[in-house]
Amino acid sequence: MEPAAFATVVGLLGACLVALILVLTARREADQHRRRASEDVARIRDEARAMLADAERRERRVADRERELAAERAATADLERRARAEAEALAEARRVAARELDKAERVAARTVADADRAANERLADARAQARAELESVSGITQDEALAELTRRIGDEAAAAAAAQVRRVEAQARRTAEARARRIVSTAVQRVAVPTSAQAAVTILPLPSDEMKGRIIGKEGRNIRHFEALTGVNVLVDETPDTVVLSCFDAERRELAEVTLETLMSDGRIHPQRIEAAYAEAVAGADDRHDAAGHDAAERAGVDRLHPDLVRTMGRLRLRSSYGQNVLEHLVESAQIAAAIASEVGADVAVARRGAFLHDLGKALTGQVAGPHAAVGADLARRAGESDAVVNAIAAHHDEVPAETVEAVLVQAADAVSASRPGARRQEIDQYVERMGELEALVTGFRGVRRALAMAAGREVRVVVEPDEVDDHALPQLASAIAKHIEADLTYPGEIRVTVVRELRASATAG
């Protein structure tokens, strides 16, 4: 230890010793004063007790005399006067004794108070002297020492509080992550839905072998006309007792399915009947949209939907996103969002409704400008949906901020449904995009009425206007289209171009 520090410590110890001696001396003097005051009070109390005892003895003598003279009251008036005089004297003696006792108590109380005050003053002087000696030895004042002590205690408390906050945050983070994983896994396990992957073929059972010949027609006339009208490949020899409709466009494939079912139930299959059945299928599209929308809403547990929303939702059964059927994806998202909302205590109805309607705008893609989230939110708002549901639809791709917990749950349900193993395949959308580019490329030629990509893009059937393109120009048009495809489109294998020119005349008799 350094000499200066040692001297400081010795000085502090000496000052403490002096202060202690002063305190002990003051206490000893205060004790002596208290003891003297107590002795004086005891002496005064003894004298008062003696006087009281003498007065009591006199009172007893008076009482004895009163009893002796009770029978002689009439004759002993003088004795009564004496007795009254003695009684008055006794009362005065009592009053005097009481005054003396009160005076003695007041004197004793003042003595004790003076002694206490003197002791406190000596003690305060001793403390002040000790404080002064400590400040002179240590080199700092009392306020500076108090400020330094307060600063050190504050620093220690702040460090302890920061460490406690870090521990609490880490614990909360671990708990939150574990709870989030449990909630999501519980919601996914509780929702048992069929796969929502979209296929590119539709299989229809044949009622009989004879129907296969009717579908093909004489020299393949019926099947060629059916394919040219619907844009769908018809495969009748791939599997027994079934007909396979193959097309990348789900809407075309559905129209072809309804048309073929109508033809098979009617039994009459020829070009005019095919066109009539196709027209009926196109006219009944809205009814099928409504039925599909109501069925999906019932499976998702959503009720009281506006008729426009129901029809729009039904149209999504023909849409796919990376191979995942959009309507099935919405039903699954609604069930997952409801399960998560029930786990975390959110509004189950709002979460279910927002998740079911969140991809509503995809049905209007190409018709209304803007991202599908904003388009769907605008349609839901016009249909009378609540602000919470509209915000959940608009915010599911973070294009606008999420204002409610239910909007965040819709985002989570959308991600969970899309990330299921095997739920989406990017190749399907790339294939559909390539087919659309092929058809758009061909329809740019003069005289082309319709272009249909068929056989997985390996064949393009081009229907031309007979008034603009004659039979002699067909080979040149086919060659020009093939060269244009070779120059502007990247594709695997070969693409066969078939140009169809059909001139039909009809008349009505009657």
Can you offer a commentary on this structure?
By secondary structure, the chain is mainly alpha-helical. Helices cover 67% and strands 7% of the residues. The strands form 3 sheets. A 3-stranded antiparallel β-sheet has the order 1-3-2, with helices on one face. A 3-stranded mixed β-sheet has the order 6-7-8. A hairpin with a 6-residue loop joins strand 2 and strand 3 (242-246). The chain starts with a helix and ends in a 10-residue tail after the last strand.
Secondary structure: elements and pairs:
Layout: H1 3-68, H2 77-138, H3 142-190, E1 201-205, H4 209-216, H5 221-230, E2 233-235, E3 242-246, H6 250-266, H7 271-283, H8 285-300, H9 307-315, E4 320-321, E5 324-325, H10 326-344, H11 348-357, H12 372-382, H13 387-394, H14 405-418, H15 426-442, E6 448-454, E7 459-464, H16 474-488, E8 496-500
Parallel strand pairs: 7-8
Antiparallel strand pairs: 1-3, 2-3, 4-5, 6-7
Helix pairs in contact: 1-2, 3-10, 5-7, 6-7, 8-9, 8-10, 10-11, 10-14, 11-13, 11-14, 12-13, 13-14
